[in-house]
Design brief:
The chain is mainly α. The protein contains 14 helices and two strands. The longest helix is centred in the C-terminal third of the chain and has 48 residues. It starts with a helix and ends with a helix. Pathway: Cofactor biosynthesis; adenosylcobalamin biosynthesis.
Length: about 325
């Protein structure tokens, strides 16, 4: 099953490199976003009740994409023996994103050299902040921060969830990847202090992203050939409001020896300067290599799970064999 997992991961990333993200109109994540839009309403005038509804939303909404993903893989398995693997690869492809992230980051960084208006327009695809007052260095900082953060929640989280279950059950692995993506989407749409409905979604995302954010930080440090960057990053990893996003962002800031700053919110590695053009270009390369490191970690996890599963099954097979003698 470890080889099957490797083949599926290879299929997913081949599709990402060849296609990038599908158009919004046909992207299942966008469809789920429409469901979240429907749920994002004042269910009650009482803030406490609104938070209670938010608990139900956080508990139930991500189960929708998880059920669809698992059902798709199960249905594909009945059509052809290879169907389950292909369907699982498609689910992993649709729940991860790398090429689009790197291209958009690279585009923003390049535009800061001669076309700040284009950079401000393009950075909206990466961050939700008002980009109109940002300088060239601040725009590059925003792009670099987003690249680091999205490595964790746009790739590492779903990839590791998939790899942990794929050797045991492809439908379960697909469901786990889709569920994690659903949790991330809920947080990105509802997880604001001004939205009581999204409090539970934000807390659930904090829990889900605890390990992926730190693994992404370690991957960035290794990709930058600076393993101690993640150690130095501990000083600022908890500065951002999120308990997780600061880890990959601060690690990348330390690895690049630059300051990453969201005005009035946080400053990471404050003694350094804002990223120059070359720093932004290097950030894209480092995040790309960190993605490769993350894939290696995921495959190693799948091998470990596969070996553990085989070891637990072997004694049972031996017992059955003895019983038939």
């Amino acid at each position: 099953m470890a080889l099957t997992t490797l083949a599926i991961v290879g299929l997913a990333f081949s599709l990402d490199l060849l296609i990038g993200e599908p158009p919004t109109a046909v992207h299942p994540v966008a469809w789920f976003g429409r469901l979240v839009d429907v749920l994002d309403r004042p269910w009650s005038d009482d803030e406490r009740r609104q938070r209670l509804v938010g608990v139900a939303v956080a508990a139930l909404a991500p189960l929708v994409p998880a059920a669809v993903a698992a059902g798709t893989v199960l249905a594909a398995a009945t059509v052809h023996p290879m169907g389950a693997g292909i369907a699982a690869g498609l689910v992993l492809f649709l729940t991860t994103s790398l090429r689009t992230l790197l291209e958009l980051t690279e585009d923003v960084v390049a535009a800061t050299e001669a076309d700040l208006e284009r950079a401000r327009e393009r950075v909206r695809g990466l961050v939700g902040r008002d980009a109109s007052p940002l300088s060239a260095g601040e725009l590059r900082s925003a792009a670099v921060e987003s690249a680091a953060e999205n490595l964790a929640d746009g790739l590492v989280a779903t990839l590791l969830a998939f790899a942990a279950l794929a050797p045991i059950s492809l439908p379960a692995a697909a469901a786990a990847a889709a569920w994690v993506k659903g949790v991330n989407t809920l947080d990105s749409m509802l997880g604001y202090p001004s939205k009581p409905l999204g409090t539970a979604s934000a807390r659930l995302d904090d829990l889900v992203m605890f390990l992926p954010a730190r693994i992404a930080a370690a991957a960035i440090a290794l990709a930058a050939v600076d393993p101690l960057a993640v150690v130095r990053a501990r000083r600022w990893a908890r500065v951002p409001p999120s308990p997780n996003s600061g880890w990959p962002m601060a690690t990348l800031a330390c690895a690049l020896a630059v300051r990453l700053e969201k005005p009035t919110v946080y400053v990471l590695n404050p003694d350094a300067e804002l990223p120059m053009l070359a720093d932004g270009e290097r950030a894209v390369a480092v995040v790309g290599r960190a993605a490769v490191v993350s894939v290696i970690v995921a495959v190693a996890l799948a091998v470990l799970v596969s070996g553990s599963a085989a070891a637990s099954i072997a004694p049972r097979i031996a017992e059955v064999s003895v019983g038939w003698r």
